[in-house]
Amino acid sequence: MGKGFKHITNRFFDYLGAVVVTAMLIVFIFVVNNYHYFIYATIIAAIIFMVRKTSKQGWKEKGKYFLILTGLVYVPLLLLFSVSPFLRFAEFRCTHAGWKTAEAEDLSYRSEWEPRHRRSSGYAYSDISYSYRVGTRSFTNKEHSVEKLYYPVWESDRKILELKDYLLQRTKERISKGKFILLYNTETPSESKFFISRQLLYPQGSELYAYIIFISIIFFSMILSAVLSMRK
After folding, report:
1. Residue of 163, 147, 54, 76 lying closest to 109 (CA atoms)
2. Smallest Cα–Cα separation from 72: which of 107, 50, 48, 93?
3. What integer is the mean pLDDT of 46-62?
4. Of the candidates 198, 205, 182, 191, which has an alpha carbon nearest to the alpha carbon of residue 82?
5. DSSP letter at 32?
6. Which of 25, 152, 128, 143 is nearest to 78 (CA)?
7. What is the pLDDT of residues 122-152, one digit of tens each?
8. Could you tell me the strand order of the sheet in which 137-152 lies?
9. Distance (Å, rounded) from C-alpha 221 to C-alpha 192?
10. Which pLDDT value is given to residue 118?
C-alpha cells in the first residue's frame, strides 16, 4: 500500500511538473513574446523535417525530434528579432498589410528607467505621445517603451541616469530628423503603431545584451579564479 501511495505521489508530481512547464512555455511564447515568431519557427522546422531524412522510428520518436527541431529554430529566430528593429518592423508590415502610414503631429516624449529588482538587468526607455489625422478625424495615442536601452545589474544610479539622458537625446534626434514611421489600421483608424527605429541591428535594445554581459563577466571571473587557484 505504501509503495502504491508513493507511486501515485510520484505520478502526481510528474504531471504537475509537466503542467507547470507547459504553462510557462505558453506564457513565454504567446504572452511575453510575439507568437508569430513561434509560427515561423514551426513552419521552418516542418520544412527541415520533411526535407532532411531522420532515422527516428514511430510517431512518438518523430514527434520528440520535431519538437526539439522547432526549439532549435525558435531560439535563434527569437534572438535575431530581439536585436533587429528592422526585422520587427518588416514583420509587422508583412502581417499588417492593411495598415497605412500617417503624418505624426504634436509629438512629445519622455525617458524613464526601469529598476533592476531581482534581475540581471534593467533598462531605460522612451515613451512617445503623438497625434495623427485620417481624413477629417484626429486621433491621439501613446507608444510605451518605443525604444529601450538595457544595462547590467551593477550599473550605478548615476550611470543609469546618464543612459536615460542618452536615450532621451537619441529619441529627440531621431524625431527631429524624421527617422520614424507611424502606421494606422485603415479598418480601425484609432489603432496605430509608432516605430522610432529601423536599424538593422541594435543589441543594446535587447535584454539579451545585458544577459550576455552578465554571463560573460561571471564566466571570465570563474576562469580567473581557476587560474589564480592553480598558481597557488
Report:
1. 147
2. 48
3. 80
4. 205
5. I
6. 25
7. 778 899 999 999 999 999 999 998 888 887 7
8. 104-114, 121-134, 137-152
9. 46
10. 47
